[in-house]
Amino acid sequence: MKLFASDYDGTIKREGKIAAHDLAAIRSWREKGNLFVIVSGRSMESLQEDVNAHALQADYYIGNNGGTLYDEKFQELKTYYIPYQRALAIMDYLKQANAVSYVVNDGYHRAQQLLNQELADKMYSHHEITYTLSALLDKQRIAQIVAVPPTKEQGVHYADYINTVFADAASAYRNIQCVDIAPKGISKATGIAHLIQHLGLAQPQVFTLGDSFNDIPMLMTYYGIAMAHAQSDIHQAAKAISHSLSEAIELAETIDLLK
Description:
Elements (H helix, E strand, L loop, with lengths): L1 E5 L13 H12 L3 E5 L4 H10 L6 E4 L4 E4 L4 E4 L4 H13 L4 E5 L4 E5 L18 H6 L5 E5 L3 H14 L4 E5 L4 E5 L4 H12 L5 E6 L5 H6 L1 E5 L4 H6 L2 E3 L2 H10 L5
Parallel strand pairs: 1-2, 1-11, 2-3, 11-12, 12-13
Antiparallel strand pairs: 3-4, 4-5, 6-7, 6-8, 8-10, 9-10
């Protein structure tokens, strides 16, 4: 049995669609007794909504860049949290740093705080987020913060600052249009490791596919395949390049990592 773990946005879902040949490749992979896992920076609420809308099925779902683990029926198996007071301090920093907005989630639900009405929020302007920030903060459980910077350059600064000043509590990852802030030490690679431990796999053959900076930990830890459209830094972290999910799965079927 092999395990294929794929990023979602820009990898499975591209330009708002999931290609029929990719859906067919996932079905074929699973029918052969292999596991297919979606690993995303999204909250589980957002991921479940999208997966259901596209009639996509996986064996496990990892959200929050490795911070949450759910089974095929979207039942929670594990969630990690940022220490609450440190999470509040990170949100204060984002306000002072002129972020466009941030989205906070408790592992499943998400809530948005718009900080700058004059700047366009390219990340979340088309998403309907109805859960209120006050209701989410009342739980005092913050699993992830996603910050939308005004520019890519400021996003790099946000990530560097958080990884320095809040290194005791959080790990920040650059993404295409945002900065994903997870609990300390959590990454897509650790999310897959926690799943392997949960399954009790002794010699797992794990293949990963991604297209952004937050995918680098899993691409480097396991057999990494980068999407062709990804930047050079992502290509350098991977062992192979693919133009589609179906092409990457086809490659994984030909490789025996135990030899």
